[in-house]
Amino acid sequence: MKKQKRNWSVLLGAAFLMATSAVGPGFLTQTTVFTQQLMASFGFVILLSIILDIGVQLNVWRVIAVSERRAQDIANLVLPGLGVLLSLLIVLGGLAFNIGNVGGAGLGLNVLFGISAETGAMIAAAVAIGVFLMREAGKVMDRFAQVMGFLMILLILFVAFTSAPPVGEAVAKTFMPDEVDVIAIITLVGGTVGGYITFAGGHRLLDAGIKGRDALSEVSTSAVMGISVASLIRVFLFLAALGVVSKGLTLDPANPPASVFQQAAGNLGYKLFGVVMLSAAITSVIGSAYTSVSFLKSFSPKIQQHENWVIIGFILVSTAIFITIGQPVRLLILAGALNGLILPLSLGTMLFAAYKPKIVGDYRHPLLLTVFGVLVVLVMAYLGGYTLWQQIPKLFA
């Protein structure tokens, strides 16, 4: 009974780590902007992306668990050097997006207390660092992610209720949309399970000892819970935004999600946005730093021995870049384009590994998950490559 209780705590922790890593400043903005563009039909995009997200996470987490190896080690077994490339992409993307996450946390504190975004970023970084200074940092990280996740759900649900969205229309258009936006679907999939987010929960379970074929049921449960939490936040934010835009109110293009909260609940709503932005950003800072460093542990025993200090260094570097340079646009553009390629590369590698006996033994991967995975790999590879091709000229403009 004690083991079962301990496992549930870890499973919830991994699920919320993955979910809150996904729910960052970009997540809030994307959801609001797409709702403004597609109105109630955005519900269909959310539904389809949820199905694809679950397929991605079940594929990746199960292979990590059954092989009892981190993603970079699996990749190196598939093709020597592939794990190094994957690690480089994950860490580069994680660092770039962490600069944005730190900035988002600073913005949240700016909304709440009127302090500068730079000062807010330093305070948020100190809180994130404090988590990894704790004696049992893993457990503290799990609990912190759960508390912040529940807080975001409650606050966004309140704003959704206040904005009085046309729920009936949203439900109807979820299954019979007026239009289908493929780019929106791919953007949501990449934003929810792309880059380092793909591995956040899987690596957390591995570090906590939830691994092996006997643990596959627990791993699958945790993966579905993670997507469910992120999706619940997405749905509530969609309804909140829909309630505002369906009344013909205009959102501020400079900060669409803040505009939704303010239009729905006045100054109180604006302050609640500050809490949600801070919660979303600081949990993403923690998730990004933890997962990025987990990709470096295979390359040096010293990194594994001093993991928490390396994570703290990662957060400090992200914060220093934000304070001194701001959010470097070119780096973020490149990282965003690379992020579109990380998912097909990482998922494709996991699918290939799922059928290599030297990695997974005599484990038989479910055919339906393979079909789902191959579909996502093909679509994301095409659109990720197209996006990168479009963005390269901007880097040298």
Explain this structure.
It is found in: Membrane. It is a multi-pass membrane protein. InterPro entries: NRAMP_fam. Pfam families: Nramp. With 397 residues, the chain is an all-alpha fold. It has one domain (2-68, 98-328). It is 83% helix and 0% strand. It contains 17 helices and no strands. It has helices at 2-22, 25-38, 42-67, 71-78, 82-113, 117-133, 137-163, 167-175, 182-193, 197-207, 216-245, 256-294, 301-305, 307-325, 329-353, 357-360, 367-395. Helix 12 packs antiparallel against helix 14. The longest helix has 39 residues, at 256-294. Residues 1-6 have low confidence and may be disordered.
> Any low-confidence stretches, pLDDT <50, length ≥5?
1-6
What percent of residues adopt helix (DSSP H or I)? over 70%
Largest sheet: none
Tally of individual helices: 17
**Terminal residue distance:** 61 Å
Helix- and strand-based class? mainly alpha
- Categorize the overall geometry: globular
Integer tally of domains: 1
Classify the beta-strand content into a percent band. Answer: under 5%
The sequence of SSEs as H and E is: HHHHHHHHHHHHHHHHH
